[in-house]
Amino acid sequence: MKSELVGLIGTTVGGVIAVAGSVTATWLQTRRQRNLAHDERMWVRRADLYVELLTADGAEASPTRGYPSDFDVPPDPDAELRLTQLRARVDAFASTRVARLWHEGVERDQELLDAATAPGAMSDIDYERHVATLSTETTAVEQARAQLRKQIRAELDPGTR
């Protein structure tokens, strides 16, 4: 009787361990699949966002969008709304580095717009200084956009580093 009890206990413990192992393995596999699906969804959203940012160097995000090169026409009235929406998407889906570079680029764009539309900026007295300021600001915008493009391409295709 004692040996039958030991056998029964051994079988029961073995069964419990087998069931626990099976449940744990299933749970781990489900968790891994859920994480992979989440990562894939995030990658697709991030890739879509990055393509949008690369399209015309993120012109949709630029505070200068809607201004012709001479800054004589008022900006596109919907530009601020699009910028706000894009800012939210960048903050939600972009990597930390891309988000930082994008925000820096928007700041450079705003500085260029401020320099171009400053009161008296086009007066004859300050014209040369104004042109020099615009040149510096334009270079800063171009550099910020180039860094952003490089980082986005590196993240979308790690083989391009």
Characterise the protein shown here.
The protein has 161 residues and is an all-alpha fold. The protein is 74% helix and 0% strand. It has four helices and no strands. The chain is rod-shaped, with a radius of gyration of 29 Å. Mean pLDDT is 76; it is low at 63-70.
Please summarize what this structure is:
The protein has 161 residues and is mostly helical.
Separation of the first and last Cα atoms: 72 Å
* Beta-strand residue percentage: under 5%
Rg over CA atoms, rounded to whole Å, is 29 Å
Number of helices: 4
Q: Write down the overall mean pLDDT.
A: 76
Task: Give the tally of structural domains.
Answer: 1
Task: Report the uncertain regions.
Answer: 63-70
The description of the largest β-sheet is: none
Helix content: over 70%
What is the SS-derived class?
mainly alpha
Total strands: the figure is: 0
Q: What's the shape?
A: rod-shaped
Q: Would you list the SSEs in sequence order as H and E?
A: HHHH
List the helices and strands and how they pair.
Elements: H1 2-54, H2 79-93, H3 96-116, H4 127-156
